[in-house]
């Protein structure tokens, strides 16, 4: 079993309302899929509540670069919002969502993930045969591709 880093965080859903809605999320990094990270949203954010939690998987590198400059050209875009906030925008066939995180929480999470699997060493930690299966499962085809995953 691979080591996993999980960290609770608060995501503020950005809408045209004057009040931001805060929801708890889990930031997850699994050593079995070292190129990706996951953001796990609770069931109440899904339009289909029977589906359970909503999980987005995307490249760890995308979050890292998005903390410094606007990044992403696929289903996930990340950019800094001032010095203390980071915005993550998710696109799917069903619509899109924009959420804001405290940058410090994202940096702590990335630091813990890099302590487990350093940047540049991700491919060395993948067991033979696992990379293809996990890539197919998550829809990761590049550093900025992502899609929501069913509950796992």
Please, could you describe this protein's structure?
The chain has one domain (4-119): Sporulation-specific cell division protein SsgB (Transcriptional Co-activator pc4, Chain A, Roll), CATH 2.30.31. The protein has an eight-stranded antiparallel β-sheet, sandwiched between helices. It is globular. The chain has helices at 60-66, 103-116, 130-138; strands at 4-13, 21-30, 36-41, 54-59, 76-81, 85-92, 95-102, 147-149. By secondary structure, the protein is α+β, with helices and mostly antiparallel strands. Helix content is 20%, strand content 38%. The protein is built from three helices and eight strands, in the order ββββαβββααβ. The model is unreliable at 124-152 (pLDDT under 50).
CATH-defined fold name: Transcriptional Co-activator pc4, Chain A
Number of domains: 1
Q: Approximately how much helix is present in the residues?
A: 10-25%
Helix/strand structural class: alpha+beta
The description of the largest β-sheet is: 8 strands, antiparallel
Name of the CATH first level = Mainly Beta
CATH architecture: Roll
